[in-house]
């Protein structure tokens, strides 16, 4: 995981639910490459055509509300989101994403600081966000050491596996 993510911002509004992030009609897909092809399809059908690995997703309030399916977090990891910034997140989606190693940062009023297409850099550890297009800055809630360890390991399962191997 990169401690500083930098990329083009893809901005979404409020209450983007898990079915917009990854439509339920695709839940039978199991190959990660197939899953990635449908990222954000319910909110923006052209998202995967324009999104490049490392780009940044920005949203208003309650991003990831809705069902508890992990598919929404899996598709954003699979598409290579550098970071996801939102005023707030759905609680279950937030934990699913962190547990899968996707960097999510709660950043109050970020949707007022970043416009679609802006170039944004995010220091995942400190929470400092810089809109390199406009020069505006924002401060996200910094990640705890524990969450940073999860992200650095690529998810909670790899972290636990590593800890168990080191305990032998």
TrEMBL record:
GO terms for molecular function: 3-isopropylmalate dehydratase activity. It is an enzyme of class 4 (lyase). InterPro entries: Aconitase/3IPM_dehydase_swvl, AconitaseA/IPMdHydase_ssu_swvl, IPMI_Swivel, LeuD, LeuD_type2/HacB/DmdB. Signal peptide: none annotated. SUPFAM superfamilies: LeuD/IlvD-like. Its EC number is 4.2.1.33. It catalyses: (2R,3S)-3-isopropylmalate = (2S)-2-isopropylmalate. GO terms for biological process: L-leucine biosynthetic process. The keyword Ribosomal protein does not apply. Pfam families: Aconitase_C. HAMAP family: LeuD_type2 (MF_01032). Catalyzes the isomerization between 2-isopropylmalate and 3-isopropylmalate, via the formation of 2-isopropylmaleate. Belongs to the LeuD family. LeuD type 2 subfamily. This is 3-isopropylmalate dehydratase small subunit.
